[in-house]
UniProtKB/TrEMBL annotation:
Entry-linked Pfam families: Methyltransf_25
Name of the protein this chain belongs to: Class I SAM-dependent methyltransferase
Keyword Coiled coil applies: no
Gene Ontology molecular function, alphabetical: methyltransferase activity
Gene3D superfamilies: CAC2371-like domains (2.20.130.10), Vaccinia Virus protein VP39 (3.40.50.150)
Length: 238
């Protein structure tokens, strides 16, 4: 995954690109709505810890990420955070939390059905009875074929990135192809492959792991219309 994603190879750039993320705010809103007494939280796929740093102002937090480079950067940039390297298919921290989160499309990087089931088993293994599960993941493909170009501020100046998407219905993989023109004048290309889990698929995986889906919303205030959604579920006490 690191080899195909420029941002994973350059954690400082990743941190800048993620600086406008609203995931932590949305996550906090959902927790206040559905589990206002929550005190502890584990975030799988925490990246450089930018969202976790915000959540840690309100909860006792642990972060887990697969990419050692991002975790090393997080230790340097945010030394107060408790972040470790781990695979969310198999990670077992030995503790259960009030809230389990997986944001930033991390779930979408798991493509195999069995692996997705293992990830949800990990969520369940770290959830206290009645715990809240908050996910952010693609629920519909981006199918437009025309490329888009945008300017991106980086630690070394302004870059330009051109993005186009392809969609494979058979595998449910949405691939984002990026062409970067970097401030140095160098060019770079990368591909981001994300598995789209449609809403009823997400619900099926969640229920299979012992969670009841409470809501799905895309943050627009108009229900579920966009390609990415927040799923909030509660572990069913057994």
């Amino acid at each position: 995954m690191e080899a195909t994603n420029l941002l994973y190879r350059d954690p400082a750039l990743y941190d800048v690109i993620q600086s406008d993320s609203t995931s932590a705010g949305m996550c906090q809103t959902l927790i206040e709505l559905h589990r206002p007494d929550a005190r502890t939280l584990v975030d799988f796929g925490c990246g450089t810890g930018r969202d976790l740093e915000i959540l840690a102002q309100h909860f006792e937090c642990i972060g887990v990420d697969l990419q050692p480079g991002l975790v090393d950067y997080a230790h340097q940039a945010r030394p107060a955070l408790d972040i470790c390297t781990g695979d969310m298919r198999t990670a077992r921290l030995g503790s259960r939390m009030d809230v389990v989160t997986c944001m930033g499309n991390s779930l979408a990087y798991v493509h195999d059905n069995n692996d997705i089931g293992q990830v949800f088993a990990t969520f369940a293994a770290h959830a206290r009875p009645g715990a809240l599960l908050v996910l952010c993941s693609p629920v519909a493909p981006i199918t437009r074929t025309e490329p888009t170009t945008a300017a991106v501020d980086t630690p070394t100046g302004s870059a330009t990135v051109t993005i186009r998407h392809t969609w494979d219905l058979r595998t449910q993989i949405n691939t984002m192809h990026r062409h970067w023109m970097l401030p140095s004048g160098d060019e770079a290309r990368d591909e981001i492959r994300r598995r789209v889990l449609f809403p009823q698929e997400l619900e099926r995986y969640a229920e299979g792991a012992g969670f009841e889906v409470l809501d799905m919303l895309d943050g627009t205030g108009t229900g579920l219309t966009g390609p990415t959604a927040y799923t909030v579920a509660r572990q069913i006490p057994r």
